[in-house]
Amino acid sequence: MKDHYLILAGVGLATLIMAWLPSVSKKIKVSSPILLLLIGFLLFYIDIPLRWPDPLWNDLSLMYFSEMIVIISLMGAGLKIGTEYSFKTWKRPLLLVFVTMPLCMLSAYLLGNHFLLLSVPSSLLLAAVLAPTDPVLAAETQLDDPKREKKFKERVRFSLTAEAGLNDGMAFPFTYLALLVAQAGGWAMFDFSDWFLDKFLLKIIIGVILGIAIGRLIGFLLDRLHRWSSIKTFDGFLALSLTIFSYGLTELLHGYGFLAVFFAGLSLRYYEKISGDYKKKMHDFVHEIERLLLVVWIILFGGSLMNGMLELTDWKGILFAFTFVLVIRPLAGLIGIAGIKESFKSKLAISFLGIKGIGSVFYLSWAFVQFDGFENRNELHSITAYIILISIIFHGLTAPSIIGYFKKDKFGNDVVEEEESGVSEDSEK
């Protein structure tokens, strides 16, 4: 029983500290994931008897846990984005998804195959798992108050929020590509048309359509049901229920659940007849659940690093990790949004803050659960861990200052967030 109480006390202390970490992070200009990682190191060092990864995680458990965190974060990302952003503004995240992401994947594949000397399927998998920018660890670089953009259009934060919401789903076809090539034994026996028509086109289309439809349906029910029958709800946990339902249903109907969750949140956010305060309540609820799960994930991640995860690759893997985070992603980002009329500082910030994290872990564990014939499993785990660690440190030390710079108005003054008015978006307009 002593171990049981030690675990409760250790995890409880970490989650208790997390309640103040966002405020502490703003004051010291260091992202909270860095501080959580240090807490994870400490709990491992004092030997809190958790089931620490030794050093690898169990692929199935890791897949389910990371899956839940990512879909909750994607719902939060969808609920953050309001109607103030035109298609012209949406061009930034769309270019990041359709230009920057393929450039990053191509670079990772070529380096994986020719520099790291990984097999073709393993190189493809490495490229796919590094494609998404993380909606969880990058929460501090994203939009925070869904009403805030009415006062100040935060293009940098909007671009990073929308990119994370979109490309976490768009990475799935390429993880499937790696899986199918591995199962076929190479490119020669690989059925490209089946992958393109089914895993790329069909599943993406189904995911987007179902997400929009579910979000609109829930919005309609929230708006009309209480008028017809006096049945209403103001519970924030509706957002969590919507997250799980839209993800599970879309996966059952052969679509990409990640895309469905993001578009369900986005569609609900765009449903103008729902009070803005209730939308914010739903966003805040899933955000708090996300932060709670993030505490546990980073603590275990820190334990895996202390327990030998980083020793499973050589200097080439370490060099690749630094190069990908600090060179490839920023350059690919700048190329992707080169034609956008925006200041170079804004473009550089958007390109540099391509934070990697839990989404990459999900795709890696998913592929290993689906097929146990991938070569270089330990090395892929270690390289991914290095990239997440480097991203946490470098982005964690720089992101608060970068975002703080873009939260100032043209006179250099901090933009103060609006007080909650308690009125619906319709009356605001």
SSE diagram, text form:
Elements: H1 2-18, H2 21-28, H3 32-45, H4 59-80, H5 87-114, H6 120-129, H7 155-170, H8 172-184, H9 192-229, H10 238-252, H11 257-270, H12 276-306, H13 315-336, H14 344-352, H15 358-370, H16 377-406, H17 425-428
Q: How many structural domains can be distinguished in the coordinates? A: 1
**Strands, total number:** 0
CATH-defined topology: Na+/H+ antiporter like fold
Class by helix and strand content? mainly alpha
Number of helices: 17
Protein name: NhaP-type Na+/H+ or K+/H+ antiporter
Subcellular location: Cell membrane
Transmembrane segments: 6-22, 34-52, 64-82, 94-112, 164-188, 200-221, 233-249, 292-312, 318-340, 352-371, 383-406
GO cellular component, one term: plasma membrane
Question: What is the gist of this entry?
Answer:
The chain is built from 17 helices and no strands. It is mostly helical and 429 residues long. It has a single domain, classed as Na+/H+ antiporter like fold (Up-down Bundle), CATH 1.20.1530.
